[in-house]
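Figure 2 data, in text form.
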Amino acid sequence: MTESESPRRELARMIAGAKRTVIFTGAGMSTESGIPDFRSPGGVWSRMKPITFDEFVNSEEKRREAWTRAFSGVAGWVGASPNAGHMAIAQWVAQKRVSSVITQNVDNLHQDSGVPVERVIELHGNASYATCLDCGLRHELEVLKQSFLGAGEIPSCRDCGGIVKSATISFGQAMPEAMMQRARTETLACDLFVVLGSSLVVYPAAGFPIMAARNGARLAIVNREPTDQDEFTDLVINDEIGPVLSAVAATLEADVTRPPSPRH
């Protein structure tokens, strides 16, 4: 075993030995799919100022700007394909190794990789569709796009006429209570909490790893850069997520298929 393989094998052992594993993903999970890390230099927010929730609700001009961004694809939030890391997680969910995926991402890639919708807990919403802020009705982006680009109509709810917004959580918007409660429940029920691609600086979401550790769960972090929570972990791997998870998946599969040792 080489030095570089050792941490990957340790993560595989942790997942294999856990009764209930929760995966927590941040922007770094999707950079290998071509989706930019919003807060890093060169990321989306360094190139354009975010539109706050209050601005969107109170200004028709800001709503038009937000929809122009959404339909031009300038933010790069959707349209990518799952990477090897996503596929490994989906495999573990299917094998019942992972009970749920808590994500800060809005790209829908966990669902696209095959993780059932009910197993994905989206703390910051989803950019692949829109909802009415008044009645909650779901609206498909392709339908809204045709009206916006064709007639210049700012999306409004087809049922109640309310303001329609992409189903993401904007700056200044309240976190979704139901998703936060589900995340707390899953965090407190797990015995292994694995962080993938999060800098762990955005709260309240970043509080879940510490919550898990304080409740007795083992904590592992895989991220390209160190985080402020590394000191609380049982394992830290500073590396690319796709290659790490692919190696872990291969180790787990080898352990499953390896014939039992002969008895002496």
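Caption note: The beta strands are 21-25, 98-103, 120-122, 125-132, 138-140, 164-168, 192-196, 218-222, 235-237.
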